[in-house]
## 1
Amino acid sequence: MSTTPELAKSLRIYKVTSYVTGIFLLLISVLYALRLTISSDLWIAGPEGLVALAQFSVDPGTGERVGFPTQGFSFTTISLIVHGWLYVAYLYADFRLWTELRWGIGKFLIIAAGGVVPFLSFFTERYFAKVAEGWNQKSEAK
Amino acid sequence: MASLQNKAARLSFWRVAVRPKYIAGLLLALLAASAFAWLGQWQLERSFTKDQTIEEIQQSVTVETMLDQRNIFIVQGRVQDQKEVFWLIANSKDKTGKSLTLALGQSDSLLKVEAVRFELQNSAIAQAFMPTTGSWLPTEAPEKVDAEKPYLLKSVSLAQLLNLYSPDKPLASYNDFLVVKGFAANYSPKLADISAVLQPAPAINWLSAFYAAEWVLFAGFAVFLWGRTVKDALDAERLN
């Protein structure tokens, strides 16, 4: 098999995206918990300083969050957007590795779940990177 | 030659694809894709908000309230029918003692609103629970108040107001305030009802817009993934 350098590259991309997405997922879990428990977003460059909590209320008519400061921006919202695109990159890495190793669809879905279930990506990364590396060594030995 | 090979590859791709296992797989992929597309559509709808009148936002409700004559304030910088107006707002309590902030009426003349505020503070209106009808509006961000006119506020922030109503001890309060209908007409001809839109919502919800794009991407990807599994099966069979 001559797929080794390609596989090594896919594996590297997978590991990096897995850690970045996993850490970001923990960050947005904390920020989202703040939204749900104390109705606040982490606010950057608002009237109360560079970083502050901004409390909001929910518009009973439209269900939108309102009452945020007029200056600055919500770090919570930005983080959710960034995580969304990191997840797209993570899925791409998942797909590369999955194609490379001709895995079944189940493995693809488990790895994909790692990017949306907090902490799961750290376990899937450990497990599947090991499986992939084992496969790599075997093919090198051939 | 190459096109012949391509044709052969395409033919056998479909030969694998029509097997019951892959047809079922395709159905699942299409199901997932439609679910993702639906989610994308839902997020897209959330991406754009339009201005609404109070009537559109919510139907009216009626609460039994008792006016708190010691806590009547004026809010400046409101907009109604394209002109700046002042709102008269007041604290009240419901039968459980919970604080309910009422937006009573508006006028473009601060002097008129100040006069009605003074009348209300000093009138001998009955200290009784009265049915008050209106629509809910959400609280706003607090804004600093000028020291010369501490009763003249720049926004309706319940957090800020509760501190003014009860500086020493915390006060239970509704999460929204009530824009009262008919108070101005019944109480004082100097004021008119508040009827305009107050909260120009941000035009684009970027989080939803991006999520919509991602769902569309995922929908396409679900079908692409199915194609990949068929191709894999094909490759595996060719190798053997």
## 2
Amino acid sequence: MPFHPTHLNLPLTGAVLDGLRAGDSVELSGAVISFRDATAARLMRALEAGEPLPVSLKNEILYAVGPSPPKPGQIIGSAGPTTTARMARFLPTLFAAGVRAVIGKGELHGDEMTPFLTHGAVYFAAIGGLGALLAKQISSATVVGYDDLGPEALYALEITAFPAVVIIDRQGRNFHETARAHWKRR
Amino acid sequence: MIRDIDVSVLRDTVARLIVEANYNIPDDILQALRDAAVREESEIGRRTLEQLVRNYEIAAAERLPVCQDSGVAVVMLEVGQDVHWTGGSLQEAIFEGVREGTKTGYLRWSVTGDPTRMLKTAGGDAPAVIHTEIVPGSDVQITFASKGFGAENMSALKMFVPADGVPAITDFVLETVDRAGADACPPIIVGVGVGGTFETAALLAKKAVLRPINVRHPRADLCRLEGELLERVNDLGIGPQGLGGRITALGVNIEIYPTHIAGLPVAVNLGCHSTRRISTSL
């Protein structure tokens, strides 16, 4: 059966977000902002202190990544997703600041899912350990803040046909949960 | 006969191993992923496995890190008791090799010097975890691993009692893998360490996760248990990247050591699909 992922241009409109279903395979193209443990903690501190952020999060999509350094001639080094759950506690604040969706890897359940539903945000999973391949779907990478954090700096990334799967949709479905239940042998 | 080895030889070897380990995953794992891409029943699972294989082919051909998480360098040394190290500190030579390879191989520096994060500035002063065993002879056997933390974070250890027995080992393995789900980057490798004291179990689990997945335990009953555990782990339905399917793990390896008559320590160390290891000898 031929494989046809849905192509989506970023930023995602409310109507597009409404139409996404858990389990949909997509290819994302457009601007995203990187975040990781230290980045998220610092963004949250700034938001709580009412300080300006290095970059606006309004309507943005966050990608959980801390890339390898680029080799000469590379735009970015290996750049696969990192585990989203480590940053779950920061998500309510980041969603309140305007973030519409998160790309990462791994599962989110229960309390980790709630802020997605409250804010109508969508969770996309990219494939963990696909670093070399996913670097080729990133057409530009610029540090826009927190450069002292090294690989955890805030990067503005331009992604092109970046493969991902919708995990948490706006209806509150969780694809990891349904897929695992479907394939489990009792 | 005492054999002198200059620590610079070890430094250069480590600098080479860390780069090779991060550009090329072991043949046994790559082959298992290729087989899995054919065997997997779930369509999204097959597609995921095909992409993983493609990633490893690209990384090898273009000499790129397979994953941005080049992890913590784990160096396991078996040192012959007739070896005499010259030319400086053994530990510093390993650290130097890790620093050098990380730089020349364009690997991400993934270690913080202060695990408590209380220090405002902390470099990676000890960028490798080193385990040394003294063995007869004058050879040095090195197993190098770059251990990513997606899977490491989902590992677990528990002190059972003798009456809990093998069912406790089985349940603990299944519970650990199930809780890890997609976060450990399946298909995973499951290392199970049983016995010794608290820390022995963890080290055994690390040795188990770093054993090639096509090498079974030499004891027939443990070999059978490895097979049973693999089947039951795969029955969990987690599948590649937790997207559902039959292939959750590529292998389950068990290592054991004698323990106290009152105890049954069990550790489960998980390895992601890119469990990077490489061995050589000096």
